[in-house]
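Bug #2210: token dump truncated for Phosphoribosylanthranilate isomerase?
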Amino acid sequence: MRYVRYFCIAIFAVALISVALANRAVVPLKILPTEVSHWFAVNPQIELPLFLVILGSIVAGLLVGFVWEWIREYGQRAEAARQAREMRRLEREVARLKGEKHQGKDEVLALLDEAS
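Reproduced locally. Full output below:
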């Protein structure tokens, strides 16, 4: 299975390198459309190779997806934490009740009673 994963990573790397080599032309990247930039009297623009724009967009999309998923799963994580706290509380209560049950008994008899 490990080799399959390495093979997939290698294919993905070759695809990314081929995209980068095919898109080396420098393109202007505008932050705002021309019509909107006149309202603010700014025209932010930067010159980047096209493959950086493409790969940067992919990375930005992945980050947005990871954050979105982390926020979406908050309820499930909170519920799991609540159940873990409840389980620890119940385990402490069971241990306390077992201690009360065997209080005053011989230690050997208490151990035998717990084992069965």
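Output looks complete on our side. Residues 73-116 form one domain. Marking as cannot-reproduce; reopen if the truncation happens again.
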